[in-house]
Amino acid sequence: MKFITRKDVLLQIKRDLIGKDAYRGVTLTYSWMANQFGHFSLGFIPTFILYKILSSKTEISQVEIWSPLIIWGCWILFELYNFLGPLLLNVPIKKTTSGKKTYIFNPEWANVTFDTLTDLCFFGIGALACSLICLYSLPIMIGFVILCLLSLYPSYYWYSTKMHLQNAGYPFQLRLSQWNFNMQEQHKKMISDFLNCEEKGKHLLLFGSKGSGKTSLSVGIATEMSIRNNRCSYVTATKLLSMFFEQSDNSNLSPGSWTWHDSSLLVIDDINPGGLIKKDILRATLFYELLNNPHYGPFNIQHIKAMNIIWVMGNEEPSEKVEDTWEHLLGLIGVPESDIITVNLGGA
């Protein structure tokens, strides 16, 4: 079921354009539009300056063509450095036994490339638009129209993708490739398999003490899923418990939004603090009791069982009784043992 439609996109654009930022705050979609307008301006303004200089100080012919091409070429070189520099030279990396530096999780190169090409498209549109204003040229007009047409799909994709990200409610922005804490190779493979699995009903239990990176890892995984236009939701355990007693209501949501039970991936954070607090404050038995309440128990269980969930825990306590473990809780809900993935990130 597709939650973000063209109508939702148009409604979000209307909300972003009408109203004062100081009053309503800034959304990710608004930031994306402002960013692209900035790229347009960075193509337009330097082209205007260069055109005036070349036309008044030199005898170069076809200044209206050379000015935008020179400026656009400079931005292409800059973006090439901007693309390769941080990704290949200043990466959040670990050292292998051979001393070679590498990512813990590889970047989504195709996605980053697509983003870079989108930026270059808006640089070019700005440069060519300025040239047309300074002096009309048919080749420039053809190039301008082509770039505008090419920008339509990337604009729709990135704007709707930003809607997926902002509707998820993440506490901060983080790509998975930026995560740089310690992790065993076998756990890295588990995370990758969970991220790329197309089956539903998979449950990832992330254990770890304070400072082990479990929250940022969960946000990084979910962010990659959001960028793939999946419906993801971030919620703390305390807030989710109150939602177990609420009637489903989509009427007050922002355009294209969804409730926790409509999510394809749910991140449940702060289930327990971990660190020096060894015992669970929120016991699995109490969680199940509130989940399976008399009013909405079957409804809650049905959705918890069916969706993919990342459970962000505290310390893994091996001395717990079987009935007090979170694996046992998932078994009561009806989740097969084969669909439960446990990763312990250890200490900081």
UniProtKB/TrEMBL annotation:
<keyword id="KW-1133">Transmembrane helix</keyword>
<keyword id="KW-0472">Membrane</keyword>
<dbReference type="Pfam" id="PF01695">
    <property type="entry name" value="IstB_IS21"/>
</dbReference>
<keyword id="KW-0812">Transmembrane</keyword>
<protein>
    <submittedName>
        <fullName>IstB-like ATP binding protein</fullName>
    </submittedName>
</protein>
<feature type="domain" description="IstB-like ATP-binding">
    <location>
        <begin position="162"/>
        <end position="291"/>
    </location>
</feature>
<feature type="transmembrane region" description="Helical">
    <location>
        <begin position="66"/>
        <end position="84"/>
    </location>
</feature>
<dbReference type="GO" id="GO:0005524">
    <property type="term" value="F:ATP binding"/>
</dbReference>
<feature type="transmembrane region" description="Helical">
    <location>
        <begin position="122"/>
        <end position="153"/>
    </location>
</feature>
<dbReference type="InterPro" id="IPR002611">
    <property type="entry name" value="IstB_ATP-bd"/>
</dbReference>
<dbReference type="InterPro" id="IPR027417">
    <property type="entry name" value="P-loop_NTPase"/>
</dbReference>
<feature type="transmembrane region" description="Helical">
    <location>
        <begin position="37"/>
        <end position="54"/>
    </location>
</feature>
